[in-house]
Amino acid sequence: MSSSAVIQDFGCPECQEIVSDKKKKGPHVYLRKILHRHKTTIPNSVSSHEKSALETIRNWETIKGKRALLCGVTYDKQKYKLKGTNYDVTQMQEFLMTRFKFPSASIHILAELAEMDSHPHPTKTNIQEALRWLVKDNQHGDSLVFYFSGHGLRQPDFFDDENDGFDETICPLDFKTAGMIIDNEINDTIVRPLKKGVKLHAIIDACHSGTILDLSHVYSTKEHCWSDNKPPSGVYKGTNGGLAISISACEDNQLAADTSAFSESGKQMEGAMTHTFRKALSDNSKATYASVLSSMHDNILAVKKKKFSLSGLFHRERLQEPLLSSSEEFNLNEAFVL
Q1: What is the average per-residue pLDDT within 122-145?
Q2: Which of 61, 110, 200, 204 has the lowest tally of Cβ within 10 angstroms?
């Protein structure tokens, strides 16, 4: 997603390459390449460092009330390194504490932050374990947040769970060897266990992240109504009585931007979705779900008109459009509260 040129720093080279394969060479080449590229290799053993990280996560306290898991994946020293994810995570941590009064002890981070070595890295096993922590012993009144900033991809759906034929995925730090985390697993881990009176918000700043939680209802900002996203297979994707809401950076077939366009200096990289999400809530103390979506759309559109009138991400894909999905329909004029 990074580039020294402002016009080019919108977009994700890894995702663009895959999308390009599909468009230029046909879907059979696209499917073969994505499966080959992300073929999973199961390690023969777990290092002592990895065991220590898992033990740390398993010992996280399950605080009642507000609880958040923030994941920022930089993919350091790899060709598809991202420059804005560390900034995204630290900004979201501060935002949750100041705007929504999350106790610092209730927020846990997985990231490649040199100054924060006490945080485990966002490897596949660490993310999986941390997601289990997020919903562990959830009870009435809990407000849970899962935030992810990193790469997102798609892979073929072989179980008739997807209306478009593709599973959406998030890419852990070690996804090239350990594999991606697909939407089915995320749904099983943090959606299905939600009990009555528990609310989960997932905020996902990644390419192809539209229906990353596989929630049954998707809101159309054009039609101003909910649409049915239940799987063709008929498998249950709902909660155990709670409510799951996801705000994604873009639709399933779109790319998400990591950019310096919002920075006053023009140098600080950050996720366009993360920036506009925080701004929408910071600028309006009485924000609703509808106003947040509208503000995010308007701010991304304003940047396009101001900085990218001729080129940039938007000549490859239509405007990055934040997407709201939910385990059940609700009124978007409700106050946005975490």
Answers
A1: 98
A2: 61
